[in-house]
Design brief:
Two copies of one chain form a homodimer. Chain A is built from six helices and no strands. Chain A has 166 residues and is an all-alpha fold.
Chain lengths: 166, 166
Amino acid sequence: MKLSNLHDLYLHKLADLYSAEKQILEALPKMIDKASNRELTKALSDHLEQTRTQAERLDRINSSRQFDTAMKCKGIHGIIAEGSETIMEIKDTATRDAQIITAAQSVEHYEIAGYGSAKAFADELGFDEDADLLEQTLKEEGEADKLLSKIALGTLFKDGLNEKAQ
Amino acid sequence: MKLSNLHDLYLHKLADLYSAEKQILEALPKMIDKASNRELTKALSDHLEQTRTQAERLDRINSSRQFDTAMKCKGIHGIIAEGSETIMEIKDTATRDAQIITAAQSVEHYEIAGYGSAKAFADELGFDEDADLLEQTLKEEGEADKLLSKIALGTLFKDGLNEKAQ
C-alpha cells in the first residue's frame, strides 16, 4: 500500500485497527475461558460484545472509505501472542487472573493509541461522521482499561492475591 | 519461567519492560533520523535520553530482584516492526512525521500499560522503592504521549499536513 498523504495514512490506520479488532474477537473468548474471578469474567464478556460493535463501526466507516480489510496488524499480534502464551502457563487461578488483566490492558492501550490517532486523522481530514464513531470506541476502550484496573486493585488484590498466590 | 504467584508475575513484567526498553533504544535513533519536524525531532531525542534513564531504573530494580534480562518482549517487537516498516515506505516528510508520531504513541501506550501493571504489582508486594521508580517512568511515558499529541495537533496539522500532503 502506497502511503503518500494523510488520507492514505488514515486508511492504513483503519486497516490496522480492523485487523486488531478481528484478532481480539478471536483471542477474547479464550481469555474469558481461562478467567476465574466473576467480575473479570463479566467485564471481559461485556467487552467481547463491545468489540463486536467496534468492529461494526469500522465496517460502517469502510462502506465509504474502502480500506484494506485483509491487512494483518503485527502490533496486536505480538501483544496477543505474548499474553496468551503466558496465560496458558499459569496454574494458580488468582495469578492467572492478574496476568489476564495485564494482557488485556496492553490490548486496550494499543487500541487507545490507535483510535486516538485515527480520530485525530479523521478530524483533520474533515470526516466528521467517522470521527464520531472512532471517538465512541476510543471512549469505550478507556473505560474498559479503567474497569480492569478497578477489578485488579479492588477485587483481586483485596481478596489477597498476593497472600494466596505466594 | 514458572509463573506461580504475583512475585513471579512481577519479575516477568519487569523482564518484559526491560526488553521493551532495549528494543526502543535501538529503534528510536532510526525514528529520529527519519523525522523532519524540529519539535518532533527534539521530543524524540529527549525521549531517547529519558529511555536510557528508564532502562537504568530497571537495572537498579534488577540489582535486588534479579529478573530475566535476556527475555524477548514480543509485544513491543510487533509494534516496532509494524511502525518501522511503514515509516520507511513514506516519502512525503509531513506524512512520515505523522506516521512516526502514531508509531511512537503505540510504543508509549504499551509502556503505559506495562508500567501501570508493574507499579500495581510492586505496591501489592510491598516493594515501595521499586514502585516509586516505576511510577516515575509511568509519569514520563504519559507526558511523552501527550507531547506527541500536542506536536501532531498543534504543529503538524496547524502547518497544514492535510493540505500539503494530499
